[in-house]
Design brief:
This protein is mostly beta strands. The protein has one helix and 24 strands. The strands form six sheets. It has a four-stranded antiparallel β-sheet, with no helix packed on it. A four-stranded antiparallel β-sheet has the order 2-3-4-5, with no helix packed on it. The longest helix is centred in the last third of the chain and has 6 residues.
Amino acid sequence: MDTSRLAADRVEVAWAGRSAIGESPYWDAAHDAVVWVDIGTRKVCRLEVETGRYRSWQMTEHIGAAVPRRGGGMVVALGAGFAAFDPEDGSLSMLAPLDLGDSQVQLNDCQCDRHGRIWGGTQGEPPRAAHLYRLDAGHGLTTVLDQVTVSNGIGWSPDDRSMYYVDSRERRIDVFDFDVARGTVNNRRPLVHVPDEAGVPDGLCVDSAGMIWVALWGGGAVRRYRPDGGLDRVLPIPAANVTSCAFGGADLSTLYVTTAAQGMTESELEMQPAAGALLAHRPGVHGQRPNAYAG
């Protein structure tokens, strides 16, 4: 689709397919494309936005997220750990396996910081058995947080002084002081409490002005918050279960939004034809270029 022609006041369908649980979008400048994963069907998906060409790659196990890799291809968060994936030849190689013991947890949302480290967490059972990890360029894995419920959205302020983080069942966006040189966080504190009626906070991204965009599962919206936690804007989405968002396009001025259709009844799907689709909106602001894994 020609995103330059998107109406500023509307959310439009970029891809009219139906992901079971679309998640983890990022902009792939080399292919002029949006990449995301479908957790429900274990796929990596890519849409070349100008040509409309769609491709997908089937994984043989759970996939929670994908991030770009500086050396080409991407890193995927699988059930067993972080792996390098090359869409050109389909090769998959484990970089950092996880020792999950007897817990029923799996990797979920992941993002890269400016120095090329991956921050990604898990979700599952028993309650508070999940963690947030940092994967360094040398493939070393560090546990950053424990007793997490559902590790989700991660993003950084443009000056790299703050890291934002969502633990979904806590219904909060938290903020840490971030040391980009060391790759460490401290001084965690609540930034935004999302009210019950607004939905559950899921994936997020941060625009070039430092505003935080968070997808709301069950809330049918993406909300934009100021760095002080104040609500700046509510973007209604024509699907109840909104999972994540990322800026893309040559000038990073298009907000791409992933949604989910899994678990919905036939009547609900008829009422929400955009459930599971990839959506696009031009909010009048620009995003930050996605960071890639340095390993």
